[in-house]
Design goal:
Elements: H1 2-13, H2 15-32, H3 36-54, H4 57-66, E1 82-85, E2 90-92, E3 100-102, H5 106-117, E4 123-126, E5 130-133, E6 136-139, H6 140-148, E7 157-160, H7 167-181, E8 186-191, H8 195-204, E9 209-214, H9 234-255
Parallel strand pairs: 1-4, 1-8, 4-7, 8-9
Antiparallel strand pairs: 2-3, 5-6
Helix pairs in contact: 2-3, 4-9
Length: 259
Amino acid sequence: MMNTLLRLPLRLLDPLTLVWLLLTIWVIRVAWLRLWRWALLPMAAWLVLTVITCTALPSWLIARLENTYAMPSPEAFSQADVIVCLGGGIEPSHTEPLGFHLVRGADRVATAIGMSVSGVAPVLVLGGGGYEHEGQLISEADAIAAQLANFSPLGFEVISLGICAHTRDEATKVAELAQKRGWKKVLLVTSASHLPRSVAIFKKLGVTVVPVPCHYLSSYNRLGTVDWFHLPNRGALDVFDSWFHEFIGTWVYQWRGWI
């Protein structure tokens, strides 16, 4: 109880919470004075901010994507030819000891490497984009592969897809490798919310995959209780951003005929 009381002032002074409180006061004030013409825009801003950061709606939305595919049974992993890890888990760095900085989707990398070390498949394929530094593009996948090369023997082959423009680019490169190497069973590791679009892309290119979900963001898929209303939470912005990214991405990919 005491810890909660001590933390409350810190929560109220959080920039996001402070902005929400000030906006709430403004809306109440103009509504009380019946200044409806002046109240419309701040009320709309308050409503958007409240729904996205103070409710469980973002978690509910992204849970619908995350629950599309369940974790496969151990039998589904048997005789797998390759593990494909889509990018989005690290950012190359010249200052970090490992040569990269873990970012939001780092669970993808951890899951894929863990499976490879466990001997699930003899090949690990790494995807990812490129980061520009001093006029030079640095590959996310190459950064991970370089670090893995320091551990010998690994017990599995590591293939970097180099710099990929987007998920379809990753899938296209994997499809070419699958045809050359005769891969029949491909384990696809990526964020649970990203799997529906990713599986559809690979299917369109003729590659059947076993989806391996990780990196769950929804409160419904994590430990703890789900509160439908709470003080503004910056994490909710990330959850909504991830859902919105998939929502728009799916629409664009359908429009371009990629899925």
